[in-house]
Amino acid sequence: MYTTTVVDTHTHRPYRRSASRLTIFAHLFGILAFILMLVWLLHYRGGIEYDSYNGDRVFNVHPFLMFCGFIFLAGEAMMVYKTVPARHYAQKVVHLMLQLGAFVLGVVGICAVFKFHDMVNIEDVYSLHSWIGIGTISLFALQWLGGLMAFMFPQPELTRKTMLPWHVCGGRALLYMSIAAALTGLMEKATFMGLRHNREARLLNFLGLCILLFGIFVDLSVALARYV
Question: 75, 211 in Cβ contact below 8 A?
Answer without folding.
Answer: no
